[in-house]
Design brief:
Elements lengths: L21 H12 L6 H7 L3 H17 L2 E3 L5 H8 L4 E5 L4 H11 L4 E5 L3 H12 L3 E4 L6 H13 L3 E5 L13 H9 L2 E9 L2 E4 L6 E4 L4 E6 L12 H18 L4
Parallel strand pairs: 1-9, 2-5, 2-6, 3-4, 3-5
Antiparallel strand pairs: 6-9, 7-8
Helix pairs in contact: 3-6, 7-8
Length: 259
């Protein structure tokens, strides 16, 4: 689904989702692989052409996801119903669950997703990987081209794609929903579904801002899709937008049994 994290010798966070930096994830993976990438600058100094790196990262991501088994207990049905009825659909996820949920999306509804990716060098690498696994991307960030990217994502949704946003990305605070998802869902008249997951086994990077989760190969991953949020048409005040984001944050919390 997703902005994104990165892969050092393995796979990129992929999503992102939306999400921000492939590089963050790359550094996280490097700790597992015992690869000595000591800082973000190390990756940047490599100056690797994203077009050259992306095919290998894509293959590694697909291999990793291919070992996992997803279970959603039929909760995807309301999303399929919306798509069949021509209703725009958005998915809201937390940044920490990007890796697993991106894989879930490409497994159950391949080629149907669109997301926002940072308009930066790191974002180009993320975009290259996402395109290869079937995503359409809109380029922009909170500091550059953000509104343009949201409008592009809205058009992708109107064209039948499922919009995906990491609502606390790209840099947190962790599990605090920002206003972009609610704003876009209201403008597109989309149903906004909160989506969570719980891998049976995962590496959790507690020193990262989001406590990023990397599911272990061959694990089972339970996916939970909450009831959709809808927003009345018309102009939203700042207070309405903030209240909607609080509703979304609570819906994401409630979607995962046991919190």
């Amino acid at each position: 689904m997703p902005c994104a994290h990165g892969f050092a010798g393995c796979v990129e966070e992929c999503g992102q989702l939306l999400g921000e930096t492939f590089v963050d994830f790359a550094l996280a993976i490097s700790h597992i692989a015992r690869i000595n990438l000591n800082s973000l600058e190390t990756w940047k100094l490599m100056r690797i052409d994203p077009v050259l790196v992306a095919p290998a990262l894509t293959a590694l991501y697909r291999m990793w996801i291919g070992t996992m088994r997803y279970q959603d207990s039929g909760q995807l049905t309301p999303i399929r119903t919306c798509l069949n009825e021509g209703r725009p659909v958005m998915l809201a996820i937390w940044h920490e669950e990007l890796f697993a949920l991106t894989g879930y999306g490409t497994t159950v509804l391949p080629g149907r997703f669109a997301t926002v990716v940072s308009d930066s060098r790191d974002g180009e690498l993320i975009a290259q990987v996402l395109v290869r696994i079937g995503f359409v991307t809109a380029r922009g960030s909170s500091t550059r081209g953000g509104l343009k990217a949201l409008n592009q994502l809205r058009q992708h949704m109107l064209d039948g794609r499922i919009g995906v946003i990491t609502v606390d990305g790209p840099r947190g605070p962790r599990q605090v929903a920002k206003d972009g998802a609610v704003y876009l869902a209201q403008k597109a008249n989309a149903k906004l579904f909160p989506v969570r997951c719980r891998p049976s086994s995962a590496f959790v990077f507690k020193r990262s801002w989001d406590h990023f989760q990397l599911p272990r190969p061959f694990c089972t991953c339970d996916v939970h899709i909450g009831a959709p949020l809808e927003f009345a048409p018309g102009k939203m005040s700042a207070e309405d937008l903030h209240a909607g984001s609080q509703r979304l944050g609570q819906a994401l919390h409630d979607a995962l049994p046991g919190g």
